[in-house]
Specification:
The chain is 35% helix and 4% strand. The chain contains 3 helices and 2 strands, in the order αααββ. Strands 1-2 form a two-stranded antiparallel ribbon. The longest helix has 22 residues, at 31-52. It starts with 6 loop residues before the first helix and ends in a 6-residue tail after the last strand. The model has no long low-confidence stretch (mean pLDDT 84).
């Protein structure tokens, strides 16, 4: 928490805060949307405020609930089958096994 703010001001959400966030996100909000989002943002911050009250002394930080490991598979080289259902089947702009584009010179 910043040192220059007290506890109540830190968690305070008002329409000015919502307008600031909307400006940063380049959103244009109506007055009705501002009221709605002010309440929603306050509810979200209240949930975080409750979480912040939990005593976590002596608890080791955990970033992932499961052990991280890489599961690699063997790469297998397979010959590409063009027909049927090749990538060019649904286009009329083709020549052999290639897409045909406009002449550029």
């Amino acid at each position: 928490m910043p040192k220059d703010k007290n506890e109540e001001d830190y968690w305070k959400v008002d329409s000015k805060t919502v307008e600031h966030v909307a400006k940063l996100a380049r959103l244009e909000l109506t007055d009705e949307e501002k009221k709605k989002f002010t309440k929603q943002l306050a509810d979200v911050l209240d949930a975080f405020k409750k979480i912040n009250e939990v005593d976590t002394k002596g608890v080791e930080p955990s970033f992932h609930p499961q052990e991280l490991k890489n599961d690699w598979r063997e790469d297998k080289v397979e010959k590409w089958k063009w027909q049927p259902f090749g990538p060019l089947d649904n286009t009329t702009h083709k020549e052999g096994k290639f897409f045909k584009g406009p002449k550029i010179v």
